[in-house]
Write a structure and sequence with these properties.
The protein is of the alpha/beta class. It folds into 2 domains: 3-208, 3-Layer(aba) Sandwich (Rossmann fold); 217-405, Rossmann fold (3-Layer(aba) Sandwich). The chain is built from 15 helices and 14 strands. The chain has a 7-stranded parallel sheet, with helices on both faces. It has a 7-stranded parallel sheet with strand order 10-11-9-12-13-8-14, sandwiched between helices. Helix 5 (110-122) links the parallel strand 3 and strand 4. Helix 3 (51-63) packs across helix 4 (80-93). The longest helix has 14 residues, at 80-93. 44% of the residues are buried.
């Protein structure tokens, strides 16, 4: 199948050709015809599968045939990074089209607020907004949704995780009832289905490779002590060919500390976190996309909020607390059917969490040998640790190491007693 099979307008096909796109991804093959047929839709697809274009392309095609386009489409997203990313994708896909868009998000000065207000008042075709800033603009009373045709909730699961349910329902209260509503989510927990049943009208459902990493990702793990993590990063980056690297840490304080430690050992890095103002964050992302910054360190805020081609390595400095977050983190590499490497550092206490990740994706992740110069490493025995936790108060359950993990780590030996 090619994009020609969708009967897109010639101008839109020219834009796709200029961007080098010829073959739709599976989510695009299924979602585009449904959106073009004006059906409500809930679509579940992992990150990196092309789901942004899956809703943008049919909307852009319909816009070309619409006379009154004042605030035609509203796309609600969880983070400003994702809002900017989608706005940039609209700009790329509409290169040969007369389509206007604006990203509406907080964390900026009064000048930007006024620019956003003017664009909303005068009627940009496509609005991409975060919930909080959108509600603030809605309450100004200057937005006219009379001609709105599409509402898209992107990364809906993430918005619910961030506590935006009430905000989403408030936004929907401003929207005409006959608007086509589309939800895209990387996961499909019960709360997403509840939201879909609440706001969608007899929706179609699409599930694409739910909770599975992209095939092109080489997944590896190193079982280490915390003190060995920075030397291991230094070893990986000096011996491997990784021109573009993202390192995930669980908190912004961890990001700042890791940034200082890596720079101290001679690795040039940039930390990306919520304490930076918007202009600093945009400057860092521009430098990273332009390959002027090799190593970007951040929290899960960038696991769904950036779309950068050519990321060769993702490192989980610590195991993410939610197995689904692992999917999103490593999905920054091997995008659009390319190849990439994802490495996770697993310390002693995080082994049960990593075991849950392996259970989710349905496979063991290779445990790699740690350089002997770093010393002894923990034994990988997550099932024993889970059992120990369950029976710590007088339980009778025995504990044994699963045969699935024997010999997976050539350095699988305990630190000698001191």
């Amino acid at each position: 199948m090619t994009f020609n099979d969708f009967n897109f307008d010639d101008k839109l096909l020219d834009s796709l050709s200029a961007m080098g796109y010829t073959k739709p991804t599976p989510i695009q093959e299924q979602a585009i015809p449904m959106i073009m047929a004006n059906k409500d839709l809930i679509a579940c697809a992992q990150t990196g599968t092309g789901k942004t274009a899956a809703f943008l392309l049919p909307i852009l095609n319909k816009l070309l045939k619409t006379e009154k386009r004042h605030l035609n489409t509203l796309i609600v997203v969880p983070t400003r990074e994702l809002a900017l990313q989608i706005d940039q994708q609209v700009e790329g896909l509409s290169y040969f089209l007369s389509v206007s868009s604006i990203a509406v998000y907080g964390g900026n000065d009064g000048t930007v607020w006024e620019q956003q207000k003017k664009a909303l008042r005068e009627g940009a075709d496509i609005i991409i907004a975060t919930p909080g800033r959108l509600i603030a603009q809605l309450q100004s009373g200057l937005m006219d949704f009379t001609h709105m045709q599409h509402l898209v909730l992107d990364e809906a699961d993430r918005m619910l995780d961030m506590g935006f349910y009430e905000d989403i329902m408030q936004v929907i209260s401003y929207i005409p009832k006959n608007v086509q509503k589309v939800m895209f989510s990387a996961t499909m927990p019960p709360k997403i289905r509840t939201l879909a049943n609440t706001i969608l009208n007899n929706p179609e459902t699409i599930n694409i490779a739910l909770s599975k990493p992209a095939e092109g990702i080489l997944q590896q793990a190193y079982v280490v002590y915390d003190s060995q993590k920075v030397p291991l990063i230094q070893s990986l980056l000096t011996t491997g060919n990784f021109p573009s690297v993202v390192i995930f840490a669980s908190t912004k304080d961890s990001v700042k500390i890791l940034d200082r430690e890596l720079q101290r050992v001679g690795i040039p890095t940039k930390a990306f976190h919520s304490d930076l103002d918007q202009s600093e964050r945009e400057q860092i992302l521009r430098g990273f996309k332009a390959k002027q910054i090799q190593v970007l360190i951040g929290t899960d805020i960038i696991s769904r909020g950036i779309d950068v081609e050519g990321i060769s390595l993702v490192i989980n400095y610590d195991v993410p607390p939610d197995p689904e977050d692992y999917i999103h983190r490593i999905g920054r590499t091997a995008r659009a059917e390319t190849k990439g490497t994802a490495i996770t550092f697993v310390n002693d206490k995080d082994q049960p969490k990593f075991f849950r990740i392996e259970s989710l994706i349905g496979r063991d992740i290779d445990k790699m040998p740690v350089p002997e110069s770093l010393g002894a490493v923990p034994l990988y025995e997550p099932e024993k640790k889970v059992e120990k936790k369950h029976f710590s108060k007088g339980g009778s359950g025995g504990s044994k190491t699963s045969s699935n993990y024997k010999g997976k780590n050539p350095n699988n030996r305990r630190r000698p007693a001191r």
